[in-house]
Amino acid sequence: MAVDHEAINLSQGFPDFTCSPELIELVHQAMLKGNNQYAPMPGLPALREIISQKTEALYNTRYDPDTEITVTAGATQAIYTAIAATIREGDEVIIFEPAYDCYQPAIEVAGGKTIYLQLKAPDYVINWNEVRKMFNHRTRMIIINTPHNPTGSVLSEKDLVQLEKIVKNSDTIVISDEVYEHIIFDGIQHQSAARFPHLAERSFIISSFGKTFHTTGWKTGYCLAPKNLMAEFRKVHQFLVFSVNTPIQYALAEYLKEKENYLGLEKFYQQKRDFFIDLIKKSRFKLKPASGTYFQLLDYSKIANERDTDYAVRLVKEAGLASIPISVFYHEPVDNKMLRFCFAKKEETLEKAAKIICNI
Fold this sequence. Notes:
The protein is of the alpha/beta class and 360 residues long. The protein is built from 14 helices and twelve strands. The protein has helices at residues 21-32, 45-59, 75-86, 103-109, 128-134, 157-167, 197-200, 209-212, 227-240, 246-255, 260-263, 265-280, 308-319, 347-358; strands at residues 8-9, 69-72, 92-97, 113-118, 139-145, 173-177, 203-208, 221-224, 295-299, 321-322, 324-325, 338-342. The strands form three sheets. It has a seven-stranded mixed beta sheet with strand order 2-8-7-6-5-3-4, with helices on both faces. A three-stranded antiparallel beta sheet has the order 9-12-11, with helices on one face. The longest helix is centred in the C-terminal third of the chain and has 16 residues, at 265-280. The relative contact order is 0.18.
């Protein structure tokens, strides 16, 4: 619709600016050196080694690069693989809505049953008492996502402690979707499941180089898990994709040596978030600044009373601006009059979008 109506597209979650020229050159050099054949099934040893070093430095937990780290064809593949490796017919999986759209289909394909718990607007925090009520001997998995897509909320240390208490002394597995781990604002510290020993011992932790290095089209990510879980993960991974793009792995192994290439990301995106918010602060939309991700929710309840799906369509057709209505992230539509806008864009793109928003 954005293309058809020549609208500014702040809907899909990808940047409209290029990645680092240095990173592109590293891929180019890897290709010229002949690194164009299959990589080892778990990923290049050099890349797995530096992922291990990065994780230990950030979260004080060491993952063995040989047995506990696997490079994947993006985070979505890693999530699907973790679910396929562990969920069986009738297993229950708790997810929190609004939820990233790949979780439920993967659970369904594996024969599992999705248990939905709603995050309440406008803060979108988890009610752990509700989780305890839903938790039982059939709860095979809980999926968390922090920073959270689509809401931009972030789990606190207290949240992870609560989850750790719930799953302790059970057979429940956790998927911790942490693809926006480096896009977190206002001095908030990312609470990786790796920081919590009793969570780490039962968790698949998923990350994405596409989100971190503005290369979503390269579809490269990784999974961290203890040896026993990773062994099951690799049984599926081997026959799902076998291995991942070789020259890109060589480039990433080199690029990760410079820590500022990922540690500087929060400042980069906070500037974009603040720039966008400042431009629209006098608009009729209500907002709570996103704590993480590169998405900002805008509340249009003072502007219109129509369903968010209808209002989003009208914005494209009449105003020339594309967003995503939050109700589509629920299995049964919940209409909080919220739209999601992606601010991973050039300043000129955000300025044009903000002008439209302020004229509504």
